[in-house]
Amino acid sequence: MGKFLLSIGIILIGLAAGQLLRKQVKENRIKDTIPVGKYIRIVQVTALLGINPFIAMGAFWVAKLDDAKYIALPVLGISALALGGILGFGASKLLKHDRRQAGSMFVSGSFTNIGNFGGLICFAFFGESSYAFVSMYKLFEDVSYFLVGYPIAKLHGRVVEDVRKQNPLVRILTDPFIMTYLVSILLGVALNASGMARPGFYRDANEVLIPLSSFLLVVSVGYNMRFNAVGGYLKECFSIAIIKFAVIPAVIASSAYFLGIGTLQDGLILKVITVLSAMPPAFNSLIPPQIYDLDADLANSCWLFCTGSLIAVVPMLYLLTRLM
Fold this sequence. Notes:
Elements: H1 2-26, H2 36-62, H3 72-94, H4 99-110, H5 114-126, H6 131-137, H7 141-155, H8 168-173, H9 176-194, H10 201-223, H11 234-258, H12 268-276, H13 287-291, H14 296-308, H15 310-323
Helix pairs in contact: 1-5, 1-10, 2-6, 2-9, 2-10, 3-4, 3-11, 4-7, 4-14, 5-10, 5-12, 11-12, 11-14
């Protein structure tokens, strides 16, 4: 219960801190000479390139990966992203959207906050041992965004700023976030296979680093939140919320159960999959609408509404996983 309250506290305090900082900047209470946006970016990079790879390596170092069924985790992860995108398109068609709005509904339905919120909630519910399975579930997340999500979004809008025009495979292989993440996993697996014992301090360090990383990223999310457009997109917000918090978890968790995942780690893996499949749109879902001139207000509204809905969703997930 203590870690559960901790996860709720980190999400609420982090979002509030980010919003407060944004307000200070908007009202000129922070001097113009202080590049707050730049510091927020540094915070994101520190968490994503510094703290998270260390956590992932340690998690894979001690994970028990002796069953072929573990291969299902990244497959289910990428299946959830694909299903969300398809359902987003379907909802958009029912709402009679134009192409730009359909593109925003696609990214809102597909792109999912597996790492920041999903990883933190799994840590709070199940402890450090669950973090390796979070990493496995999200293994193909970034790759699917770059190879599938961005190109589909691009087809639905006018390109405003195409930052990288090189081949998508080259873009992935040269992306520091993706490569750092993959290297940390490979190192963890190699150390696991070597039989070398993980140092005792690692577990204690992760008890601090996992909440810290999540807090830093949630603050950056809170800083970028914009509330003013939500009221005009309530139908879209409710549609994405139903997709994210009801349909996808039901399909992915059921699939995992029928694949026999419930027998692994005394049911822990199935619980992790259930939590991760019920996460809101990722902050990345706001980027394609900006660079491809989709309906950015729609994407921003869905992201805000679903992220705020975690206040109700997290307690329900807590009760559900206790009953599983």
